[in-house]
Amino acid sequence: MVENTVEMDPVEYTLRKRLPWKLPKRRNDVYVNMKTDFRAQLARCQKLLEGGGHREICVHGLGLAINRAINIALQLQASSQGALQLAANTSTVELVDDLEPEDPDEAGEPMTRTRNNSAIHIKVFYPDTP
Amino acid sequence: QALLIQHPEHETNVSSPLKSAPLLVPPRALKLGQEGFKKVCRTEEDSPCPFPGLAAGVLEMRVKEGSKIRNLMGFAMARMQGEKAVSGGDVSSGGLRQVVFTGSGRAVTKTITCAEIMKRKVGSLHQLTKLQYKVVKEVWESSEEGTSEMTVRRTVPSISILLSKDPLDPQEPGYQPPETLSALWEEKDGVESASQTACKRPLGPLSYSSFTHCKRVCLGEGVSVLPPQ
């Protein structure tokens, strides 16, 4: 998992997390995060399904936001009185951290480190049968 | 230990059997821990099995918040691979055919991680993922008087992941064929990008501005009604 076995010295390096990979961003993709207010994100999904005219949306959550993504999907389903269905898929996302030396004069070379995190992708949709 | 039991995104129904104190606190902002209450017990109510038609003897790994992944995986991998047949009754040398990982609340992420690790290590596993709310009943007792007791019913999101060496119904919502480690993304990307890029650009700024407006409104409301998460 960890390619570089060199231990990081917290004094000499700052850890900078890169943004997770390229995101497919359709108009019905919703990426859930932990910074935005929960109800705002729920309202956004409801808007897409009701006002936006989408038959299906895809709710994505990474790491800690998995819980919130599931919560949003289940809330959407509950408020639709059973009209909406959920189809969840899970995946592993590779994340890259940059280790930048604090003091450029000292020895440390810039390093990168990869780690894995779990993610969920929930399709929230109206079943085709009328 | 978390004293704040109420997250704004969880629903809570509070019922107080003994009307000892005027508990007129709105349930959404309830902090039992700070009012001298102690959690006595926590029971998960039985919920219907998300996989109907599953054989009775399937290994179910119940992932909890404090479970160690190495313990869970050590046990589950040994049973699935069947090399070290720990239980004498297990005659099948190839190990078990199926395993279910379940977890709720804060254990959901760990549950997914376990399933992902197993998929990577065992290989060619069919997956079925189901989500549901689980009802958790908590009994809280007042530490001051000892007489007042409160029962809290909480609904927490839970996940169940079935991993199978045998094929599963691909039509079932939540099915994932083997070896979709990163294909999930690329596939979607490729299919959709051609049809979407055309209409994406002109509509972009419009939808963006309406979203920021909506966000601001909701945030203002959230601050006044609810404590920060």
UniProtKB/TrEMBL annotation, chain A:
Location within or outside the cell: Cytoplasmic granule; Nucleus, Nucleolus
Complex and partners: Component of nuclear RNase P and RNase MRP complexes. RNase P consists of a catalytic RNA moiety and 10 different protein chains; POP1, POP4, POP5, POP7, RPP14, RPP21, RPP25, RPP30, RPP38 and RPP40. Within the RNase P complex, POP1, POP7 and RPP25 form the 'finger' subcomplex, POP5, RPP14, RPP40 and homodimeric RPP30 form the 'palm' subcomplex, and RPP21, POP4 and RPP38 form the 'wrist' subcomplex. All subunits of the RNase P complex interact with the catalytic RNA. Several subunits of RNase P are also part of the RNase MRP complex.
Name of the protein in question: Ribonuclease P protein subunit p20
Family: Belongs to the histone-like Alba family.
GO biological process terms, semicolon-separated: rRNA processing; tRNA 5'-leader removal
Record keywords: Cytoplasm, Nucleus, rRNA processing, tRNA processing
GO CC terms of this entry: nucleolar ribonuclease P complex; ribonuclease MRP complex
Range of residues in the leader sequence: none
GO MF terms, alphabetically ordered: nucleic acid binding; ribonuclease P activity
From TrEMBL, chain B:
Molecular function GO labels: RNA binding
Record SUPFAM superfamilies: AlbA-like
Region (Disordered): 1-20
GO cellular component terms, A-Z: nucleus; ribonuclease MRP complex
Chain ranges passing through the membrane: none
Family in the record: Belongs to the histone-like Alba family.
Family matches, as PANTHER family: RIBONUCLEASE P PROTEIN SUBUNIT P25, RIBONUCLEASE P SUBUNIT P25
Record-given protein name: DNA/RNA-binding protein Alba-like domain-containing protein
Species the sequence originates in: Monopterus albus
Origin organism lineage: Eukaryota, Metazoa, Chordata, Craniata, Vertebrata
